[in-house]
């Protein structure tokens, strides 16, 4: 954790010029910048958050592999669960130093200045902090530095348990929803997701509460039910209910503010569509297939790369006569990074009803299941006719709700690799109509002795053992004693 304190100084100094065209608060003359403003820090934090979950290292070689959306074309080690420790360290640092610390600094400046609407702006930063901590806790298996993580006077913060982090996040989000006041201003500029719209930040916070609460529903049903009921209470501001209310980080056409995956594809083709994903889309003639993937050259056929091949063992090397590559839906310069969208919220509502939770939600699980598929299809540009045809092929089956909702949610979350992987772990879904497994183990075997099918967490960065040893060892005791990628998250009951 010590390195965070050095990195944040650099981040604050560079905040005024690390982004350009289109991010207004960042588009300042760096030679005249003496101190970063709260808006600049917020922009940088949002930019860093989107990059950390969507770049070629974390987003692709981790998330998109573990969700089996993509396969490797050249360097297959990560798809066989051998991580690059430097990438893991950068992801950890990215959340703490490049997102959380900058948000805390923005909040401090807002508190000192107390300009009109500062309460709203502090609350928005607090909601984004909850979003980042949510990723951190789930990625690393539960225990993370949380309550003491951003204290500059404490370079060896304790790790809070996953249960404690979740309780804290739900309390924080509930509190921020109450703080947000639509009669007062939010951010006038520099806020990329909702452009300072306070009402939409309320809806995002409530929707995030639903995701967090549902994820722990198997082990803390009562607490989850209480949180869900509060989040759904119209008096608290509502949830994401239209596509326009989805939380998207929209990139710009040119470097350095284009989608980071777009930039990685300019140099070489390291990623192809996986056979797992392509075959499942083809199984039910999913009209999103030609939106998500490119056909083979001189062909209308779509072919996925076998997942987890050893380097040089029959891999296509990205040759489009042999394998389908991701389309601009994922790799376009302006392809948005999804923080949370309408389709996910609809599937959450379907699951709430499928579980029979008494939270006052009207409608049926089947209704929201269909609405989730429809929202995903429309976001992908599919017309109503093909949507209706597809819905007939994938009917909702109450007795197999985990399989129905899980498989369709997985498809809808394409590009959101990390969250799709976590949903894969939580729901353990298979194809609801054949009963067959959807996912496969790496074809040429795992390179991690502890993992066969898929990692259930990311290992802590190795520097934690030396920089924060005592608390690091306590955290390991809470997940089984070793820093293995096979330890299950506290909420992963089945």
Automatic annotation (TrEMBL):
UniProt organism field: Dyadobacter psychrophilus
Superkingdom, natural source: Bacteria
Keyword line: Lipoprotein
A family per Pfam: SusD-like_2
InterPro entries assigned: SusD-like_2, TPR-like_helical_dom_sf
Record-linked SUPFAM superfamilies: TPR-like (SSF48452)
Listed Gene3D superfamilies: 1.25.40.390
UniProt keyword Lipoprotein, yes or no: yes
Signal peptide feature range: none
Keyword presence, Lipoprotein: yes
Protein known as: Susd and RagB outer membrane lipoprotein
């Amino acid at each position: 954790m010590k390195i965070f304190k050095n990195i944040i100084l650099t981040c604050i100094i560079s905040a005024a010029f690390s982004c350009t065209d289109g991010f207004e608060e960042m588009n300042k003359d760096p030679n005249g910048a003496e101190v970063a403003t709260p808006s600049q820090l917020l922009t940088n934090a949002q930019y860093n958050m989107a990059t950390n979950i969507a770049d070629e290292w974390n987003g692709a070689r981790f998330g998109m592999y573990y969700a089996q959306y993509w396969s490797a074309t050249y360097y297959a080690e990560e798809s066989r669960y051998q991580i690059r420790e430097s990438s893991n360290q950068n992801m950890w640092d990215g959340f703490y130093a490049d997102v959380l610390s900058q948000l805390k600094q923005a909040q401090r400046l807002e508190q000192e200045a107390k300009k009109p609407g500062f309460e709203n702006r502090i609350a928005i930063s607090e909601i984004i902090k909850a979003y980042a901590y949510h990723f951190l806790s789930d990625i690393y298996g539960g225990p993370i530095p949380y309550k003491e993580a951003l204290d500059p006077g404490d370079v060896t913060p304790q790790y809070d348990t996953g249960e404690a982090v979740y309780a804290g996040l739900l309390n924080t989000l509930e509190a921020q929803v109450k703080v947000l006041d639509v009669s007062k201003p939010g951010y006038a500029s520099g806020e990329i997701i909702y452009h300072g719209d306070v009402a939409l930040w309320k809806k995002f916070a409530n929707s995030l509460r639903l995701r967090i609460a549902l994820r722990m529903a198997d082990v803390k049903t009562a607490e989850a039910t209480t949180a869900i009921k509060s989040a759904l209470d119209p008096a608290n501001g509502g949830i994401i209910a239209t596509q326009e209310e989805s939380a998207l980080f929209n990139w710009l056409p040119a470097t350095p503010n284009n989608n980071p995956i777009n930039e990685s594809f300019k140099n070489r083709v390291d990623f192809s569509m996986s056979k797992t994903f392509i075959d499942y889309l083809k199984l039910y003639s999913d009209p999103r297939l030609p939106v998500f993937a490119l056909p083979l050259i001189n062909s209308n056929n779509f072919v996925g790369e076998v997942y987890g091949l050893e380097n040089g063992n029959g891999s296509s090397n990205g040759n489009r006569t042999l394998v389908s590559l991701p389309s601009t839906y994922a790799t376009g310069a302006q392809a948005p990074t999804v923080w949370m969208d309408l389709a996910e919220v609809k599937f959450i509502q379907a699951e709430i009803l499928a579980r029979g939770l008494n939270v006052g939600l009207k409608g049926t699980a089947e209704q929201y299941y269909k609405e989730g598929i429809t929202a995903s299809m429309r976001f992908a540009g599919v017309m109503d006719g093909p949507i209706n045809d597809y819905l007939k092929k994938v009917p909702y089956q109450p007795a197999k709700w985990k399989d129905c909702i899980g498989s369709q949610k997985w498809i809808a979350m394409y590009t959101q690799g990390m969250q799709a992987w976590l949903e894969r772990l939580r729901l353990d879904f298979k194809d609801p109509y054949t009963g067959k497994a959807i996912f496969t183990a790496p074809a040429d075997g795992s390179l991690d002795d502890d993992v066969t099918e898929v990692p259930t967490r990311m290992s802590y960065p190795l520097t934690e053992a030396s920089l924060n040893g005592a608390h690091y060892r306590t955290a390991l005791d809470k997940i089984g004693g070793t820093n293995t990628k096979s330890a299950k998250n506290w909420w992963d009951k089945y």
